[in-house]
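Bench log, entry 3. Co-assembly request; chain sequences pasted below exactly as received.
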Amino acid sequence: DAGITQSPRYKITETGRQVTLMCHQTWSHSYMFWYRQDLGHGLRLIYYSAAADITDKGEVPDGYVVSRSKTENFPLTLESATRSQTSVYFCASTPATPGNTIYFGEGSWLTVV
Amino acid sequence: QKEVEQNSGPLSVPEGAIASLNCTYSDRGSQSFFWYRQYSGKSPELIMFIYSNGDKEDGRFTAQLNKASQYVSLLIRDSQPSDSATYLCAVNRAYGQNFVFGPGTRLSVLP
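Structure output for the full assembly:
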């Protein structure tokens, strides 16, 4: 049972470069999420998706782009990375059934230099 | 006012004691409440969920919910050093699948 897998797990990139973080889930969950976690801010929602081809902004969407052409994949792209985007990024998913919990991937550690 | 609030800690308790973690939320329409544990460098993992007012027990863990007071807590009995982690409270709103997380409380269980 693979669950949610994120790649890369660790990435160092330069300011201004485009970076894509991949997320793949094997449960066929309808909902998928991208969070970033920073000291002092906790988990903040970047984008979420209720189904394939349906995405919506979360609390901190600026500088990020998402797509969801297939139910199982939800990539997050930083179009032009900035140092403030240095963070840990967690992908998560949950079924559409109300009351279900949210399941997290292992995280992607991104450093922008 | 933040939607979900927790004391940031650190909360230090001796081994074998009861650790009490608290969480308040602002959305009265919230339906589902979750406690996650997060070890340093790891992703959050679910400990417990609770939907109804009252207590819910699972092993050494007890979740307590009071919707009138908009308050949810987690009690850890017989605390162990391995319980040392950050505990995140999460609330799912009544509409959609919109989880809101608190900032977390760092727990340290001293041997």
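Chain A has a mean pLDDT of 93. Chain A has no helices and eleven strands.
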